[in-house]
Amino acid sequence: MLTRKSCLWVTLALLVSLVLSFPAGAEEKIIKIGSLYPMTGRPGIYGLDSVDAAQMAIDEINSKGGVNGYKIELINTDSKAKPDYSVMVAKRYITQDKVHFLFGVVSSAVGLAVTEVSKQHKKIFIGTDHASTQLTTDKLQPYYFRVSNNTFQSMAAGAKYLKELKETKPWATIAYIGPDYAYGHDQWNELKYNLDRFGVKYKVVGEYWPKLFAPDYTAFISTIINEKPDILVAGFWGGDTVAFIKQAQPYGLFSKTLYFSPDGGGNYELMSAMGADLPEGLVLSGRHHNNWPDTALNREYVDKFFKRTGRYPTYAAEGAYTGIYAIAEAVKKVGNPNDTEALVKAFEGLKIKLPEDPEGFTSYIDPKSHQIVQEQAIGVTVPNDKFPPAKLMLGKWKVYKAEDLLPPADYIEQLKKK
What we know:
By secondary structure, the chain is α/β, with parallel strands linked by helices. It contains 13 helices and 15 strands.
C-alpha cells in the first residue's frame, strides 16, 4: 500500500510528466499585434481613440473564442508622431516581441518610415489611419495594406464635389493650405489632377505650407484674405484643423471664402472641440462619421464606443477597429498567424462589412494596390446636438461611388517614374 507521502510523489511526477510532454507554446495561442499610435499632444486623441477601438474589437473577437483558437493581443507604444523613433520601436516589436503584425500609425511620415521596416523584415503592416497615397502606389511593398481611405480617394471625391458646385454656386479661384510634408503635398497634387481630368476650370491664387503642428497661422490667414480665393482647400488634420479654424474665425475668413477639406477636415474632434463656435457652411469629410451612414451597424459601433469610453469616436477609431477585424478575417482564412505569405494572399481582395459602409456596399481591399476601396460622403456643417459636446455635425450629404475614386493606371505609372 502506498503511503500518503508516496502518493504525493507519484502525483508530482505525473504533473511534471504532463508539463514536459506539452508542446512549447501550445498552452497559449496568441496573435500578437504591435501598434504605434501618438498618445500625447495634438494628435493624441487619435491614438487614444485608436487603441480603445482596437481593444474593443479584440474584446469582441476574444469573447467569442478568438480566431481558430488564437486570442488577439495588442501592444501599443506612443509613436510620438516621430518617424525615427517609430522605426526603432517597429524593429523592437519584430525582433524582441515577436509580433505577427505591425499596426496603426497616424502620421503619413511615420507610415512611410515604418513601411520600410515592414518590407525589410517581411512583416505585414496594417495601416489604419495615415493617408498618403504614396504608400499604395509608388512606395507600395508586398507586406503593406491600408484599411482607410487614401488622399487620392478623398481628393477625387472632392473634385467631383467642386465640379457639381459650379452648377449651383459658380466659382473661379482656388487656394490651398496644408502641412509641408507628403500628406499635405499629396492632397494638393491629387486635387489638381482630378479637377483637370474632370474638366473643371479653375485659377490657383495661392499655395501655403505651414509646418505640421504649427502654433500660429495668422500670417497665412491674412495673406489668404488678401488673395480672396472663392475656394480655400485645407489639408489639415487633427488638432491643426481645430487650431486653424479657431484662429481664422475672428478674421471673418469663412464669410469671405468657402472652406473645403475633403480628407481629414470632417473629423468629430473638430465638432467636439468647437461646439457652438464651429461655423456653419464648412464643407468637410473624413474617414468615418458618427452620423453617416444611418445604418444599424454604424449606430451600434458608435454606441458601443461611447459606452466604453464616455466619448464619441474620431474617425481614427474606426480605422483601428477595421484593422483588427481585417486581421481576424485573414487569419481565419489561413488558419494561423504565422504563414505570412499566405496571409498576404488572404488580405488581397478581402471583403469586410464596416460601420462606414452604406447599405448595399461592402468595403474590400484592392489586390493590386493593397488599398481598401470605400464610398465617401462629403457634408456641410449644420446644427445638430445629438453628439455632445458637438453642436454642429455634417449634413446635406453627397455620396461618391467607391470605384470612381481610385487612381487611374496612368496616374500610378506617372508616380512610379518620378
